[in-house]
Write a structure and sequence with these properties.
Elements lengths: L7 E10 L6 E9 L5 E8 L4 E2 L5 E7 L5 E7 L5 E8 L2 E7 L2 E6 L6 E6 L6
Antiparallel strand pairs: 1-2, 2-3, 4-5, 5-6, 6-7, 8-9, 9-10
Length: about 120
């Protein structure tokens, strides 16, 4: 999936179920468009990721050893990854605009709306 400004491409691959019939985990890789060398490779990621509307960050859930998820933000161009407080069951991210990240946790069983305001100041 290309970033909104078209400068970066994020790809999810090496996917496998975390348990039989369960959601997928794999590797999220971000590259500059037209380049082969990744800027970052993020293991244990979920396939549900979303670019910020200004292309300065990508949000993605990362699986833990306890089979729950932590929400992570990878910042462009600083390359910093930060983990947002809280644990989630299965995050389905929908949008990331003006620092507001919207999605659903557990979209199939007892869904809970997720609405988090983040500071995208990279300084």
């Amino acid at each position: 999936m290309a970033s909104p400004n078209g400068q970066y491409v994020a790809m999810f691959d090496n996917a496998m179920e975390i348990a039989m019939g369960a959601p997928m985990r794999g590797t999220l890789t971000v590259r500059e468009k037209g380049q082969q060398k990744p800027l970052i490779t993020l293991p244990d990621a979920s396939g549900s990721f979303v670019w910020s509307s200004d292309s300065t960050a990508i949000a993605f859930p990362r699986w833990t050893m306890k089979r729950d998820q932590r929400l992570c933000i990878w910042r462009v161009p600083s390359g910093k990854t930060e983990e947002i407080n809280g644990r989630f069951d299965v995050l389905q991210l929908e949008s990331f605009c003006d620092g507001r990240l919207v999605g659903v946790d557990s979209p199939i069983y007892r869904p809970k709306k997720v609405d988090i305001q983040l500071s995208l100041n990279t300084k």
